[in-house]
Structure formats: structure tokens, C-alpha cells
């Protein structure tokens, strides 16, 4: 497979851009693999990549019912950051951010990682205290973060509403300079190419419909729409469909599927060169390289497997955006879409060996699974390869016995739709 470089781009350009290799093969499924990963999103692909790269396990297949990256990975708003407060999350997301920093080089694929900074606005003194606590915890763990006062925010983000009658007064912001964005499709494609290069079979249009079990009940393969396939180990990385895949193995997981929506505007001149989150609601904004303003929204508020958003949320979010950035008021919206989130009780993920032998689970990423992709899959691959968790994910297991429901990052109680 061609190594991407300035030289190869230049040489191919001289040849009329003919003769580029396929980025990955399109193999038929084999009868058996050492490891099968269900789900060809960022997590499934990255897990296969790290199994091959870090552990030398290359007899691996990724089974995807649709096309690679067509689930939440291709629908997310691409924010990456590591500004978490709860002990295990702090280190976990920081490991992920470190992997993001070298990802394009590691994959030999431009994941378009942009450390454009994040500003978390706060709108009351108590919110400021909450953020100060979170950012102090981060800093004590060696993670970058700063608290800015109102004047500093005015200088950095002059287009917000600072008027005396502003609906949401701005007291200041917490900011993580290394946070930013990455190109979602490129991340899926880069991991796909990297895994394929190491021998992993990526099999699309192949839905897993059940498991093969041996006499002891252990999972020893999967049933799919393209036939039965044997495997020594099966890992599931299917985000909002995890409860369905777990139920096929007789597991009732403590997660709920919720719908999360996002929007993009028509292309606009460069306005926002960073990521801004709005503390008075679950709303955030950034600007894509094509110029579209990307708005992230909130959950619809009830369980759903629909991959489209509903109007009540649009009605709720767009006025919030307008109140925060008045110059958006005449902007036209181009698209809205949704994805199915795997929400846990406490907002922290689950990466573990399941109670069923041969079955491993990676889920519960709520709104944060894109930024978690490199780290979580590095830990998931470690867990599958070694049959035990890494120290950073040993508490991210299924309750009981080790995991106790904690307060979520936002100090909300254990309710899947509240964090
Ligand atoms: C609107 C929106 C905005 C978001 N914004 C952000 C953000 O800014 N930052 C962030 O960190 N996170 C964000 N997220 C969350 C993030 O997108 C997800 O947590 C992450 O992409 C999950 O990756 P995944 O690979 O686990 O899941 P997916 O990308 O959903 O992949 C799972 C795959 O499994 C496949 N599958 C399901 N069932 C089966 C089956 N039976 N057999 C075979 N294949 C199956 C699906 O087709 C799918 O392709 C956002 C999500 C949404 C919806």
C-alpha cells in the first residue's frame, strides 16, 4: 500500500493522479478469526488497529452492518479534549488526547487534528467555582487548563453578547489550549487503512444477529447476515446498539440509548477559530474548515433508536445560540442530523471483559466517544489481548462489584439523560 507523503502526492499529481491504491481491501469473511470486533465505527476500527499494532494480533475481522464510520463516528461534532474531573476519566481522556497529538503521523493519514482550544463559558459565580474545581484537579494531574475572567474572554471571543441585558451573562471561561477538533471521517478511514495494512479484514454490510456459544455458554463466534463466523474472542463496539448486542448474549447492561442531535449552517466567513461551550445549557459551537458553523445540541430527552433529531430541541437550541452570539441571527441552517448515544448512569464508559466468557464490551461513551477513540481503543485492545484491564480502565467495568455509581462530571445524580 502506498505510503502517503509529500513525495507520493507530488509524484501522483505529475501522473494525473492515476494509480492510487485502494485505501483498504474488501475481503470475503473467513470461517474463523482469533478476534472479531462488532461495529465498524471509530472504536471498532481503532481497536482492531491497536490489537494488530500493539499486540501483534492480526487474525482479526471488523464486522459492520452498514458502511465504515457511518454511525456516530460520522455524525459527531468532532470535539476532542481532556478536561475531566473524576479521577479515572481525567487520566483516561488525557491518555486519549496524547494519542490524538501523534495520530496523523502514527496512521500515516491526515486526521486533521486541530488544537484550536476550547472555552467553557460560565454564567454565574457558582458555575465559575465548579469549573475552577474541575480545572484545578486537571492542573494537579499535569493537564493544561486555565481560568479566564470576563475581560479576557471579551478579548478572545469579541462576538459574544456582553451587553448589560444579555440573557446569559458571561462571568468568564475555563479553557483548555490543547483541546480542539479532528476530522471524523478521516479518523475512521485512517484507522481502517492502518488496520487493513496490518492484515485485519474489514467486512461491511455484515450485521451480527446472534452469538455461537459452546456447552459452557462461552461465546465462540457470531451469526451474521453473511453466515456464521467462529472467533476465540468477540468484542462489541456498537455505541447506541450495545444494549441489543448485549441482550443477544443474555446481558442486561445499565445503559440507555438516547438520541443526540447536531446542526450545521451554510458556509460563513471565518468567525470562530476555537470551540465554545455554553454553560447555561448543553450547547457548543465550532466552525468547520468548509466554513459551516457546527452546533452541538442536547439529548431529545427520551429513549430512541431513531437517527434523526426532533423539532423541540431545534426550537430550544437555536435561540440559545442566538442569545450567545447575536450575529448568528440571520444565518441559514443547512442540515440537522442525529446519532444514538449509549448513555451510562454516571457518564463514564464501560471497557471490560463481560461476565460471558469470550465476550468483551466497549460502550457507554455518552457524548464523549469521539474524543475517547484513540485512548479507549488502546485500553480495549489491551483488555482483549491480555484478558485483563489496564490500570486506567480497571474500574470502568460493569457493576457490581468494583464500580459504584458516582456523581457524574457535572455533579448530576446517576441518571443517563442528566449528564
Ligand atoms: C450529534 C453527535 C455529536 C457528537 N459530538 C461529539 C463530540 O463533539 N465529541 C465526542 O467526543 N463525541 C461526540 N459524540 C459521540 C461520539 O460520536 C460517539 O461516542 C462515538 O463516535 C462512538 O463511536 P463508536 O465507534 O463506538 O460508534 P459508532 O460510530 O456508532 O459505530 C458503531 C457501529 O456499529 C455498527 N453496528 C451496530 N449494530 C451492529 C450489528 N448488529 N452488527 C454489525 N455492526 C453493527 C453501526 O452500524 C455503527 O457503524 C457525538 C455524537 C453525536 C450523535
Question: How would you characterize this protein structure?
Answer:
The protein has ten helices and 18 strands. α2 runs parallel beside α7 and α3 packs across α10. It is globular. Strands 1, 2, 8, 9, 10, 11, 17 and 18 form an eight-stranded mixed beta sheet that branches. An eight-stranded mixed beta sheet has the order 5-6-4-13-14-15-12-16. A two-stranded antiparallel sheet has the order 3-7. It is α/β, with parallel strands linked by helices and 419 residues long. Bound molecules: flavin-adenine dinucleotide. Flavin-adenine dinucleotide binds next to α2, β12 and α10.
Provide a concise account of the structure shown.
The protein has helices at residues 6-14, 42-55, 87-101, 103-107, 125-140, 150-156, 184-197, 242-247, 311-324, 369-386; strands at residues 32-38, 60-63, 79-80, 118-122, 146-149, 172-176, 180-181, 201-203, 208-213, 219-224, 227-236, 255-267, 275-278, 283-287, 292-303, 333-344, 350-353, 359-363.
